[in-house]
């Protein structure tokens, strides 16, 4: 893998890169996660850094100082000027597959699936059908996998040998909350299709969808309370509050072309990153590690989540309907203006007109999608995603080297590869 | 007020009544709750009793032994044979009004209303409109009032004289707000689930603003209450209330799965009523006691009070769905029945009248079949038997209050029970 950096601050960039010993030509075998632990790791920086740090193996050079902070400061991280432009040239690296990535926690995920089916199915067959519709609809179990990976990685720090019941229960709670929010989201968005299958409310009606969602929220609240850890209870309750706030924010600003990037990031935090951050932090809490490490895990989850959301928003423009499992431009047509659109609106006044017309003209959606692409909105959004991805990698430095940390890094990279 | 008791166990009854010094002819002025504290209280039993106890002032004789237990034993309480038949004859007593009853906590309720508006309205104007639609739609604030009454009554037990001071703890107030938000959120979602157009004479949120706003408003309020609950930092109360939210969902599912099922038994109905109504009230009253710092025995009694009050309340609501007119109800009569939700009067009537079963199983496909069914429920004694069930639970609730000190707050809690009963007299 080689890396070229284009940036107006070229002199500063080169100095940064050289000073950190960045691997500009690292290559390695990606066929199995298990091999990761064996890959040789040369001189690398272990410090948290004030900011002058380079991702050890991924060849992402960081060309500006940034730090990881709380959501209120999301806007500061954005406002530091245009992000640098990166090019990652692929060498002999094969694409990361989630199956490989999750292999180290495959057994944990199997147990989780079984427990989830039991929890939901035991109550009522109708609910079970609704839950299967969404549980079985190609969900990646990314969030529980993150809980298991962080649990195991942080456990090494304190010599903990096995995952605890609380770790497992946390993963189940997280997946139930995520699933419940999807079911209600589809009602709120009036969506017919998710991951190529009909949505719960399309198939069983709004009432079953509301009920199934309520049931899963309720179950997760109850399990959460019975974990008897006030810090985690407050953490997850904050997430549920953030979900609702995010939905409201989104619903209130549809077709609003004055929306700013910071608002978009806050909404993305509420809707996506908040849950992931709480998952990773919660896992660390149950491992019993330092609050510093817990906070780093929170930041990792937050930055991963933001990167993930921006990438999702990019793909809504760049992928076809078959790939997406739903129609393309589905956010845009509803007036939900995401990163590519917000960047494009800075450049193209015609786009504003089309959006404000709420796509009343035939073919106006296709025209708008074209304008977003031609005005560089996609590229700028890609940079934003990479920026957050870099921060996430940085947050992992407090973890011991090993298969689990590697998998967590690969989780970041896997997302990025979706937009390469 | 005089009381006549009709029961096959007449001999036992009279002995019970006489032995306890029941006030069979107590009368008093009801014009203001403040007077309650001054009313003279003659010889009365303060003990918890094994069961041989009589409601001091209300003239309800208890003619069979019963005890208060957990929901799993709801069915046992029912299975002890047909409940006795009571008659309450009104003397010079004027009907209890909720306004009077809540007067001792009027200021607390005012603060609550203000806080609720702030919590919900601060987020978004659209949500505020939806919330006003339901908050402003004649809600009685019964559950928060219960929290405040129990808070103040139990506080006296531990020497916190809150009667004449204004200061309930922040946690008590927050608990009341949480309870009312959960209740309101469940109403909004219930109306979506039931596809109801009218509640309390006004349009429902989802009729007015659409399903999406209704789902969102409900989710928001559930989320807010979970967050406030977590920040109360009391694990016992957190678990208590989380159980309620779980019970709500279970109750809805139970109900949705057994529509038009004429084989439904009374115990299932009671469990569903517990999940949907009594669970929240029981958690409110117990939570209030927990935050007052009283004994766990007293907390448990407050739980039982809330549970029995809630069950009585639900049975009465179900009776009124048959006996009141649409104007009184604020929605069409027989609305549970037409959806296939079979409640106490129907369950009792089904034991007597096979024709009713046929009509229900036809799901009211014939014109006028609903009116016919309502008529059959009334003519087969279903209403009367449901009334007895309500009174049975009411009696248990009064009994649960005996651990509380005499005073305006305990009286108001007793009157809450009686207020409900008067709705079916």
UniProtKB/TrEMBL annotation, chain A:
A GO MF term: metal ion binding
Cofactor requirement: Mg(2+)
Biological process according to GO: isoprenoid biosynthetic process; plastoquinone biosynthetic process
Protein name, per record: Solanesyl diphosphate synthase
PANTHER family: ALL TRANS-POLYPRENYL-DIPHOSPHATE SYNTHASE PDSS1, GERANYLGERANYL PYROPHOSPHATE SYNTHASE
Pfam families in alphabetical order: polyprenyl_synt
Keywords in alphabetical order: Isoprene biosynthesis, Magnesium, Metal-binding, Transferase
GO cellular component: a single term: chloroplast
Domain of life (superkingdom): Eukaryota
Assigned protein family: Belongs to the FPP/GGPP synthase family.
């Amino acid at each position: 893998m080689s890396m070229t950096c284009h940036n107006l601050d070229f002199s500063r960039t080169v100095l940064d890169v050289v000073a950190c010993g960045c691997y500009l030509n690292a290559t390695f075998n990606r066929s199995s996660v298990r091999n990761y632990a064996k890959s040789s790791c040369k001189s690398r920086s272990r410090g948290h850094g004030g900011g002058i740090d380079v991702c050890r193996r991924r060849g992402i050079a960081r060309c500006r100082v940034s730090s990881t902070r709380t959501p209120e400061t999301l806007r500061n991280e954005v406002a530091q000027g245009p992000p640098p432009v990166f090019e990652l040239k692929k060498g002999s690296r094969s694409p990361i597959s989630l199956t490989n990535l999750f292999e180290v926690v495959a057994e944990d995920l199997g147990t989780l699936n079984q427990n989830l089916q039991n929890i939901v199915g035991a109550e009522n067959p109708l609910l079970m059908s609704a839950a299967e519709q969404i549980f079985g609809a190609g969900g990646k179990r990314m969030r529980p996998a993150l809980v298991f990976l962080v649990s195991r990685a942080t456990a090494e720090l304190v010599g903990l040998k096995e995952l605890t019941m609380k770790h497992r229960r946390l993963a189940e709670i997280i997946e139930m909350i995520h699933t419940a929010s999807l079911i209600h989201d589809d009602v709120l968005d009036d969506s017919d299709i998710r991951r190529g299958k009909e949505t719960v409310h399309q198939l069983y009606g709004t009432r079953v969808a509301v009920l199934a969602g309520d049931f899963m929220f309720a179950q997760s609240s109850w399990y959460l309370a019975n974990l008897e850890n006030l810090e985690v209870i407050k953490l997850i309750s904050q997430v549920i509050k953030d979900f609702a706030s995010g939905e409201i924010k989104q619903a209130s600003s549809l077709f609003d072309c004055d929306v700013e990037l910071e608002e978009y990031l806050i909404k993305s935090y509420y809707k996506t990153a908040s849950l992931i951050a709480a998952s990773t932090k919660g896992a660390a809490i149950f491992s019993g590690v330092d609050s510093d490490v817990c906070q780093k895990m929170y930041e990792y989850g937050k930055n991963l989540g933001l990167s993930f959301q921006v990438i999702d928003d990019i793909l809504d423009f760049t992928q076809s309907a078959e790939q997406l499992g739903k129609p393309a431009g589905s956010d845009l047509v509803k007036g939900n203006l995401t990163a590519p659109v917000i960047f494009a609106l800075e450049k193209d006044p015609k786009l504003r007109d089309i959006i404000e017309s709420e796509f009343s003209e035939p073919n106006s959606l296709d025209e708008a999608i074209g304008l977003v692409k031609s005005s560089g909105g996609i590229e700028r959004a890609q940079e934003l995603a990479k920026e957050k991805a870099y921060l996430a990698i940085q947050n992992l430095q407090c973890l011991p080297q090993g298969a689990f940390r590697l998998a967590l890094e690969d989780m970041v990279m896997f997302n990025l590869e979706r937009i390469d």
